[in-house]
Amino acid sequence: MSKNITPYKNSDLGKKEQVAKMFDTISGNYDNLNRVISFGIDIKWRKKVLAIVAKSNPETILDIATGTGDLAILMTQTNAKKIIGLDISAGMLEVGVKKIADKKLSNTIEMVLGDSENMPFEDNYFDAITVAFGVRNFETLEKGLKEILRVLKPNGVFVILETSVPDKTPYKQGYNFYSKNILPIIGKLFSKDDVAYGYLSESAAAFPYGEALNNILRKIGFIDVIALPQTFGVATIYSASKN
Known about the structure:
- There is one protein chain.
- By secondary structure, the protein is α/β, with parallel strands linked by helices.
- It has a single domain (15-242), classed as Vaccinia Virus protein VP39 (Rossmann fold, 3-Layer(aba) Sandwich), CATH 3.40.50.
- It is 43% helix and 21% strand.
- The protein has 9 helices and 7 strands, in the order H-H-H-E-H-E-H-E-E-H-E-H-H-H-E-E.
- Helix 7 (171-190) packs antiparallel against helix 8.
- Pathway: Quinol/quinone metabolism; menaquinone biosynthesis; menaquinol from 1,4-dihydroxy-2-naphthoate: step 2/2.
- Keywords: Menaquinone biosynthesis, Methyltransferase, S-adenosyl-L-methionine, Transferase.
- Methyltransferase required for the conversion of demethylmenaquinol (DMKH2) to menaquinol (MKH2).
């Protein structure tokens, strides 16, 4: 199980409230900063998520921790009839709603303010569910995953894209140096929130990945669990389903 890493060390707020506050603060620069931090490779990873989801020909898709809606927008290429982007940060959703309107996708994508651990959806509702760089922000990982299992239809597809830590030399050493030393500096240059990208780096390092996360998914009740490491292991795509 992952350690409970929070953005603001001395805050009385719970993790959910801290995460919402942090993302509200950095929402204006988030998209551009993501491209800089990942050298643009995150776009390639998201397209791989799209390819996995598209195979199931979903009619309804939920994108959890949708942020400004990048993955939800990409999911329109599946020709799904309805896509919902859920996020706890009103600031991120505000940016996303404008992006979606500019692309004339408001009839397909609905942005919803809500908690991934207590979602306002019926059981067995979605054909596909995605989470990109969001599961490590869950206050209680297993509770969030149980909630995802609840709203996913039987035989539906669940895909996670999340950071992970390379196991092999020299990628492991290079990743550790970059995440601990370079990433927080870039974050401070671009962001009004000094702690935000330090938190993102720290939470990524502490989060279970690979077979550890596979085992948690199986414990919750997911089936057909597969982990697909990306770019020397700096990120991993997880695919799972439901009986």
